[in-house]
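User: Structure please.
Assistant: Input sequence and predicted structure:
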Amino acid sequence: MTPLKTMFTALLVLAAASTDAGAQAYPNKPIRLIVPYAAGGATDLMARSIAQKLGTGLGVQVIVDNRGGAGGNIAAEMAAKAPPDGYTLFFGATGQLVINPVLYAKLSFDPMKDFAPIGLVGQLPLFLTVPATSPINSVAELVAAVRAKQDKFNYGSSGIGGTTHLAMEMLKAHTGMSITHVPYKGTAAAVNDMLGGSLQVMFDAWATTGPHVQSGKLRFLAVSSAARSSFEPKVPTVAESGYPGFDLGVWYALLAPSGTPPDVIARLSAETAKVTAQPELKQTFATMGMEPMTSTADQLAVFMRSEAVKWAKVVLDSGAKAE
């Protein structure tokens, strides 16, 4: 081999090695995970559990950045406009990704265009709950009671357009019952009023109502998800209670800014799937009333599109608009 050919071959080898090293370099610095809720809540704890385990798998620190406000839109916009390099991720939820585009007249981001799906991580089922002193013991009995005494039934929620509001609106659509909505600023106050007797029923997360059920002050009638909850297996689903097709839950997913390289998305998706499959994560989630979920990036994309259609109908039928 001539000296020129030898030098050219060496350069090709070095270039290939350099390219391979670059491909293996991600990630080589901390990753920021933007969470659209304040620190300390169940969603924040869920995100931090994911971040810690994801960081271990990737070999770098995943830092949670809480950016609450405006229904999560502030955080979503920040994440959508971040550099698409895999170092900024979004811990998105049902609200920001499929409800807000219908609920708000104008958004500065498009969830379907501005994000690259990575994978689902969990779901928060909602429990249809009544005071323990209520004579109602099933969804069928609730519907019958509401029809008999429509002016005496109120339901509470965390606020107009929130999932606890829209869940009851979806139930109203399935059952044909009419019941008065009383919106609150958060479900804790609504639960207190239900304990006090001024509210008759509401959908809410296990973390808020579960302890009161355990103490004998509240009672679960049904769960909103398609399957029974693994931590409340005796509670029937709404679908099992006579309303097939009822399937609703607050889900959470990891996403990156649109334009993030496919190989980076693939790496993040694979590591996320490993995290959500860990038995200890299921135990951690159960203490918060959550169920782990796992998906590929492509499966999440399909799921988001189907959820967008479902929730758009619920929002439009309810007439809810962001305040």
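Residues 297-318 form the longest helix (22 residues).
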